[in-house]
Amino acid sequence: MLKKNDIVEVEIVDLTHEGAGIAKIEGLVFFVENALPTEKILMRVLKVNKKIGYGKVEECLTLSPHRNQDLDLAYLRSGIADLGHLAYPEQLKFKAKQVKDSLYKIAGIRDVEVAETLGMENPVQYRNKAQVPVRRVNGVLETGFFRKNSHDLMPLEDFFIQDPVIDQVVVALRDLLRRYDLKPYDEKEQSGLIRNLVVRRGHYSGQIMVILVTTRPKVFRVDQLIEQVIKQFPEIVSVMQNINDQNTNAIFGKEWKTLYGQDYITDQMLGNNFQIAGPAFYQVNTQMAEKLYQTTIDFAELKADDVVIDAYSGIGTIGLSVAKHVKEVYGVEVIPEAVENSQKNASLNGITNAYYVCDTAENAMKNWLKEGIQPTVILVDPPRKGLTESFIKASSQTGADRIAYISCNVATMARDIKLYQELGYELRKVQPVDLFPQTHHVETIVLLSKIDSKKYISVELPMDDMDLTSAESKATYKQIQNYVFETFGFKVSTLYIAQVKKKHGLEVREHYNISKNENQKVPLCQIEKEEAILDALKHFKML
Fold first, then answer.
1. Structural domain span for residue 219
2. pLDDT tens digit sequence for 218-277
3. Cβ distance 341 to 280 under 8 Å?
4. Is residue 27 left, alpha or beta, with left meaning phi > 0 and alpha meaning psi from -120 to 50?
5. Fewer Cβ neighbours under 10 Å: the N or C end of the chain?
6. Do 287 and 430 share a domain, yes or no?
7. Active site residues
8. Mind listing the pLDDT tens digit for each residue in 18-59?
9. What is the DSSP string of 433-463?
10. Annotated binding-site members for S-adenosyl-L-methionine
11. Is residue 423 located within the same domain as residue 528?
């Protein structure tokens, strides 16, 4: 029986969806960071339970032909580039496989081709935004990135996947914070002033915004700091302050102040100009976002008489990109500042056929239908949790011919496609796009088309002839907890079960485990417990 600190020879047979190597020995599945399929390694056992374990590479006996040996391991340990040890062409294959596997396992789809992942020519130094924590390490103020699954800061100057000018600005700010003796934030003591540095840079314009995230409004000698950093980087057109005095993992608080210049930067995407405010969502990889949006436009087969709904419209990037191809665009977003941004961006580009409202997408669509607005195309680009069931039903009730769905989470996307199919839409095209090279994340565009009911006949099947075993196999939270405890020997909370279910596209109750205390920290499920819950979900045939 294997135990902690044992060293054994194993072969890596696969990768997890987050890029860890998988080894199997003595009936156990081990997860090993920085290990690739076909590699034989000496593995040190770090932790072992009844069915799963964790190991580290003690010595690599044979190397994969697809290993990138030039990667600084700090990028793996921090999670900045958790696929960086895998050669880039293989990263693209890995991501296409993730999409294909999710469509099959979650939605039962295997007869639709998944295209090869669209990749970058130079898949590094692409991020146009940095969010960098500021902490004290060994008595010195440092900037860097948290070690995986912790809040222990790893000091870094070169972030590998970030615009190198942004890295230079962060280092300059770090040095100025040290010079003016501004205190870094201490999470344990809930003390200090500077929590985070956020830097945005326009890919085409080169304009830079600096955001100081602080625990209180007053910042000693901030005018001198701004004067010095602008001397070094005259491209800085905006310095903002965000005050976040809450005990929270959220980067930003509610209060914003403009310390220098304007409260936005301007950049271009697909020929349009966009004002980008501090808190606004804007794709971090401009080059690949243009490919993403252009592919979406191509998928949607837009015509001059199309009426388009742009749900989750943000600052209008995708809706305004399609406006010149169609009759009208109607955008909806729940964040008031983003709606204001999108309206300004429409005006900035002389676009008069795009209209934006602040509302939930479900309500907006119902109101538009009452007003006689009949969409032919719906564009959706939701957050990682995917679409709500009520949105899917509301969007299908519009009778739109085509739905182009941009997803940053293949599991929730597959779940949503399954429901769309039940409501009369068919999956026609699937295109993965590598918006986040060197990481396990994959963006996907799918096209759903309304089924022409005239081409189909109705068939009635006796219920007795149908195998409903899988559909009926829904375990309760208590059953999952009991299975994990009996199999792995530890307890898991219902909150963790809900997090894992949502992550893998399974439905949970609408407001399950949301605290009434808006300042409360929500703990994230540890990898060990996530794998145990996944094992339970597979045991009960829910995945």
1. 129-269
2. 999 999 999 999 999 999 999 999 999 999 889 999 999 999 999 999 999 999 999 999
3. yes
4. left
5. N
6. yes
7. 408
8. 899 999 998 899 999 999 999 999 999 999 988 899 999 999
9. E-SSTTSS--EEEEEEEE--GGG-------G
10. 283, 312, 333, 381
11. no
